[in-house]
Structure formats: structure tokens, C-alpha cells
Specification:
Blueprint lengths: L2 E6 L8 H10 L7 E5 L2 H9 L4 E4 L1
Antiparallel strand pairs: 1-2, 1-3
Amino acid sequence: METIKIKQVKSRIKCPRVQKLTLDALGLRKMNKVVEHDASPAILGMIEKVKHLVSIIK
């Protein structure tokens, strides 16, 4: 399966709790941190929920 890199580019301050939990589930706890995940439907759905806070590095 294809892997994607996800980088948190905006702060999670003043975000709803659900979005903070989604960032935690992705492994993003600090700004500018990059994590690598498989491009599964579950991961892509999480990215869609917080797309304004993250960027995808191909």
C-alpha cells in the first residue's frame, strides 16, 4: 500500500476537541512534526477532518 507523509502546519489551539483527538490519533502532537502512514481509507478520512491543520507530503 502507498505511504503518505503528513505534516502539521497550523496550531491546534482553539480547535474543537474532536479535531485534537484526530491529530493525536495521527501521531501529530507538535507543530511541524511529520509522520508517515499507509494511505488507507481510515487515515484518509482522518486527514479530511483536519485538512486545514495539516499538509500532505508525497
